[in-house]
Design goal:
- This protein is α/β, with parallel strands linked by helices.
- The protein has one domain (3-104): Glutaredoxin, CATH 3.40.30.10.
- Helix content is 37%, strand content 27%.
- The protein has four helices and five strands.
- It has a five-stranded mixed beta sheet.
- The longest helix is centred in the middle third of the chain and has 16 residues, at 31-46.
- The model has no long low-confidence stretch (mean pLDDT 96).
């Protein structure tokens, strides 16, 4: 299951994490976000122990969303060692997200 990331736990779970982290910025009212949600959950299971996969609800966590300038959702950020190393705006195939994760590990 994807890790629920919040304004409170983001620093510890992502910025201080030495694994590659895929973060899905989403909202409950967003149709494309709901479309990609099953793929995000599958990636969380498939990469368990090798990478972190988490979700940030933009409505409930405005600080993190603003920190990264999230303007449209879904947006997926790939973070490694506290730095954004890749980004995907909009729906993408699960295979494309998996390839990006593999390449960054």
């Amino acid at each position: 299951m994807a890790l629920e990331l919040t304004d409170d736990n983001f620093q510890a779970e992502v910025m201080e994490n030495d694994k590659v982290t895929l973060i899905d910025f989403w909202a409950a009212w967003c149709g494309p976000c709901r479309m990609i949600a099953p793929a995000i959950e599958e990636l969380a299971e498939e990469f368990e122990g090798r990478a972190t996969v988490g979700k940030v609800n933009v409505d409930e966590n405005p600080q993190v969303s603003a920190q990264f300038g999230i303007r449209s959702i879904p947006t997926m950020l790939f973070i490694k060692n506290g730095e954004i190393v890749d980004k995907q705006v909009g729906v993408a195939p699960k295979s494309a997200l998996a390839e990006k994760l593999e390449a960054l590990m």
